[in-house]
Amino acid sequence: MLAETICSAVSAAGLGIAAVAAYRKRFLAAVRxxxxxxxxxxxxxxxVVEWVSGIVFKPSVWIGFxxxxxxxxxxxxxxxxxxxxxxxxxxxxxxxxxAKGGAVRDAVAPAASAPSLGAGSRxxxxxxxxxxxxxxxxxxxxxxxxxxxxx
Length: 151
Fold this sequence. Notes:
Blueprint: H1 2-23, H2 27-46, H3 48-56, H4 59-90, H5 135-138, H6 140-148
């Protein structure tokens, strides 16, 4: 009964706002507000509000939702344990790292870990010497790209 009263009050307030909008010559907005204001009354008249309030205020319904949550947690736990067991029995000593989504991915070309930039893009320092990076070296690639595009 309380839910029906609240829905009727919301509809009445919406119709009042629609009347104000129509008075201000905003007819399109007034018609749209009227449509929204009639929805709660329509839900009360069709019995949807009574059905929903019957579900929300019954303890047996909430116990049912709790049991569904427990069943889902048990299912997911057993699935995770099963995956862990299958993963260790099929793989040798070292298993690949899991990706962000949890799926295991094998590398297409394991030897190609660094991106290939070409032979002349950057000079490598001599093995025995480590050349300190100057601020100009950091932006040399960017400058080359900008020059290439005429910027």
